Model the fold of this input.
Amino acid sequence: MGTGRGGRRSAEGVGIVPAYIASLAKTGAQFTVEEGETILDAAERAGILLAYSCRSGTCRSCLTRVLSGCAEHDPEYVSELNIDADELAANYRLLCSALACSDVTLEK
Ligand code: FES
Done:
């Protein structure tokens, strides 16, 4: 018996750990982003290669715009990332440091 779309059993078998679907607008590719997983890591796990370099929020290679849905940087580290408030307000995110908080469509 499955847990249905958008969820999976946690390692302990209790509760449901959310997972979201990320879609790439340019290719139509889709992949699952699990709780606590960066969108870049989730794409790689699915065999989808996205541009990146530093993986630490400084080079901006992974910068893209969120067209719909929710993706947020970890608030603990957002001040250390190479992205400014105007870009955040315009829904740009660094995929190496962004977590999905709903199903999300990206301008990639
Ligand atoms: S890979 Fe360098 S900022 Fe994301």
